[in-house]
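[INFO] parsing input record for YeeE/YedE family protein
[DEBUG] input buffer:
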Amino acid sequence: MNLYQEIFKEYWNPYIAVGMAGLASALYFGITGTVWAVTGEFTRLGGHILGWFGVDVSQWAYFQLVGLEGTPISRTDGWIVIGMLAGALITILLSSSFKIRVPKQKRRLIQGFIGGIIAGFGARLALGCNLAAFFTGVPQFSFHSWIFMVTTAIGTYFGVKVVNTKWWRGKPKLMKGPMNPVVTQNVEKRNIQPIIGLIFACLYLALVVYFFAAGKPMLAVACIAGALFGILIERGQICFTSAFRDLWISGRAVMSKAISVGMLISVVVTFFYIQNGAASIIKVAAPSTVIGGLLFGFGIVLAGGCETGMMYRAMEGQLLFWVVGAGNIVGATALAYGWDHLGIYHALVENWSKVNLIEQWGPMGALFGTIAMLAAWFLLSNWWGKHFRYGTGIKHQKIESISHVTKEV
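[DEBUG] output buffer:
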């Protein structure tokens, strides 16, 4: 019972959860030759939805770039997304923590939708979100991921500035009630959740077995990997939005440091695969990467969650993040339209090249250069946490200055 408590009733140490995610993403690349990603599939889903309404998107340049063949249930990327949702939902049910939640301020739904649109547009402009252009992009030794990482951090900083304004937060609703309100829970519904979770887990396992038996091993692998990613992001509460937002708001650096550790593990394992013949996935480093990263970072703060955070929170029953997800699909699809119809490709991408750090710096140079960058990120995050929170930084100096003035008065 104690083991069940530790696994399903308590959240996992973020270093362990993100470290396992880094290892799993590298192994997934080694097996399939592709990476852990979600917004590309969001874009394809947007294309399918337009097709249902009679819009022919087959000639759109962006869909020719990312591919639109098949359906989500016939693509590995589709099962990564489905698996993440399923894995997160199963652990949420096993922990008896599913509950429908509607924001008290309905404006949050509109804000989340707008943030989702901006984040989805930015992610696809940069050819990847916090996963493909960040967490799994850096281990591919694609320089565009370095650009995206920095600009995403900058975008989140400005996003925090916006969400901290009074006009964004709105006025809290004050309600009369007893000083010590009685909290009641439907114990019966809570107790049945683990049973439902176990049933879902068995059905999902049966699906994996079916794919292996039907001669579709890559879909089976994607099912397994997707569910594992879903379990890890939910149990570890892995959210890139909170990683950056916490830095700017409170100086809390735990998730930021954990992500750098997880990426470091992924870098080493991915390097091994690349050196043994696997083809690294390199994306163009262009103004689109800069603008996309800024928009993505800005949007995820307005929305309240990145792609990983959005997915497990949606499975927890938080209505807001279903709206954010819809915004992501709208934004990604809008970018797909603008890629050629509005000249985005010609203006921001066309004359720029892919930069493979292994080709530029050599294998060892790329490996140790990337490790050094991640180590610097870890140390900088650690320094920032202490500087911001524990008395050596600007915030503390301001407090001391105010205190000094007060004493003089």
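[INFO] Residues 390-409 have pLDDT under 50 and may be disordered.
[INFO] shutting down worker
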